[in-house]
Design brief:
The complex is a heterodimer of chains A (156) and B (94). Chain A is an alpha/beta fold and 156 residues long. Helix content of chain A is 22%, strand content 19%. In chain A, strands 1, 3, 5, 6 and 7 form a 5-stranded mixed β-sheet that branches. In chain A, strands 2-4 form a two-stranded antiparallel sheet. Chain A starts with 5 loop residues before the first helix and ends with a strand. Chain B has one domain. Chain B contains 3 helices and 3 strands; from the N terminus they run βαβαβα. In chain B, strands 1-2-3 form a 3-stranded parallel β-sheet, covered by helices on one side. The termini of chain B are far apart. Classes of the chains: A alpha/beta (156), B alpha/beta (94). At the A-B interface, α1, α2, α3 and β7 of A face β1, α1, α2 and α3 of B.
Chain lengths: 156, 94
């Protein structure tokens, strides 16, 4: 049986009420018809990670996002997310943001290509309307402009 | 929002009780401790193996909201010994 996170998260958030999990107000489904080995792929992480020289995220309600170069050699990644579980991934952000693994799958021909940038935002935001209307909308627009064929979402 | 732009998504996540409630279009469940989706630190072989296996699920989705479980295990013997350590770690997340 999978581990249950919600009871511990509820205890941790006390005396504030536990987080409310919501479904998208406008659910959409786009068929994944393009073969993976012809697809341009981007990662989207909620770890609030960035290159060291990029502007830091401001915990806990930063609605911005960063475009992180998909080239694994482009620079060191640091994680700004405030979560206590970050002690391990801060040792190696690749375990939540597999930039190198994805680049290797491109080299092996299993994935078509990398988008020029991956995308990073702050997880755990509580203003869901703002997430949908501003943050997600802007990221989706940027992905479209970058001709992304498949977005890999990795929640933190 | 992203699917609405014509871009399919694949969510790769560890917290089954959370991802089952938010109804993402396609989800691959990775039964690892949260914060270690693609394996332990500095294990590039395992990072890549997890990602490759998750991506192999992509053509198998037939409906929105489906969660696929390819059978990832954190420990080779499949034990859940990691859960106690994770609980202690999460207790510090306040």
């Amino acid at each position: 049986m999978p581990f249950e996170y919600l009871p511990i998260m509820a205890q941790n958030s006390a005396p504030k009420p536990p987080r409310v999990l919501v479904k998208p107000s406008k659910p959409a489904w786009c068929p994944a018809t393009k073969p993976l080995n012809q697809s341009r792929v981007a990662l989207l992480t909620s770890a609030a990670l960035r290159l060291t020289q990029q502007e830091p995220f401001i915990p806990r309600e930063d609605f911005g996002y960063r475009k992180v170069p998909s080239d694994p050699t482009a620079g060191e990644i640091i994680i700004d997310h405030h979560s206590g579980i970050g002690r391990v991934p801060k040792q190696d952000p690749e375990i939540v943001f597999p930039r190198t693994a994805l680049a290797n799958l491109v080299k092996r021909g299993l994935v078509g290509s990398l988008a020029p940038f991956h995308f990073s935002c702050m997880g755990g935001l509580r203003d869901h309307a703002k997430i949908e209307n501003e943050l997600a909308t802007a990221i989706a627009r940027d992905m479209k402009e970058a001709r992304v064929d498949l977005a890999l979402l990795v929640p933190y | 929002m992203i699917e609405g732009q014509g871009i399919p998504t694949l969510l790769i996540g560890t917290a089954h009780d959370i991802i089952s409630k938010v109804t993402a279009p396609r989800v691959v469940f990775v039964d690892h401790p949260v914060g270690r989706t693609f394996g332990p630190p500095h294990d590039r072989g395992r990072n890549e193996a997890v990602l490759e296996r998750a991506l192999a699920e992509l053509p198998k989705f037939t409906r929105a909201g489906e969660i696929r479980d390819p059978g990832f295990q954190w420990l080779p013997d499949g034990s859940r010994a990691w859960e106690r350590e994770l609980i202690a770690e999460m207790r510090q997340d306040r």
